[in-house]
Amino acid sequence: QVQLVESGGGSVQAGGSLRLSCAASGLTFSSWSVAWFRQRPGPEREFEREFVAGIRRSSSDTAYADSVKGRFTISRDNARDTVYLQMNSLKPEDTALYYCAAGSRLVVARLEGEYDYWGRGTRVTVSS
Asked: Of 9, 25, 43, 90, which has the fewest beta carbons less than 10 angstroms from its beta carbon?
């Protein structure tokens, strides 16, 4: 059974940092691309998960949403079956439930429908 388990969320003040982790089991992790998505609060966003960052199976290819570029860094440790999201210079608008997802595509996809497995999320709250 494939499982993705996120951790590392919490509450921080604007300008602070957090590092999220996504631990995988039940799959050959190094063969999967992994991405982070987030769901921000608000009734209009109830079913919307937006792409944040992704990393290809080889780790040499990464992609970021424009809103986090230069502040967030995605990395992976295939020996530990774990992907990380280092988040610096956090802003209140980064407040969201963060999910990791694994997909079999060769490139980093930005659409949630391209991913096969999802974690249950970890909450990040950034106060001003």
From this structure: 43
- As a whole number of angstroms, the distance between CA 51 and CA 41 comes to 15
Sequence-separated (6 or more) residues with CB below 8 Å from residue 28 = none
Q: Which conformational region is residue 45 in: left (phi greater than 0), alpha (psi within -120 to 50 degrees), or beta?
A: alpha
Is residue 13 within 8 Å of residue 127, measured between CB atoms? Answer: yes
Q: What confidence tens digit (pLDDT) does each residue in 82-95 have?
A: 999 999 999 999 99
Residue 112: helix, strand or coil by DSSP?
Answer: helix
Query: How far is C-alpha 33 from the geometric centre of its chain's CA atoms?
Result: 12
What is the per-residue pLDDT across 95-107, written as a single tens digit (0 to 9) for each?
A: 999 999 999 888 8
Confirm if 47 and 66 have CB atoms less than 8 A apart: no
Burial group, residue 73, by CB count within 10 angstroms (0-12, 13-18, 19+) = middle
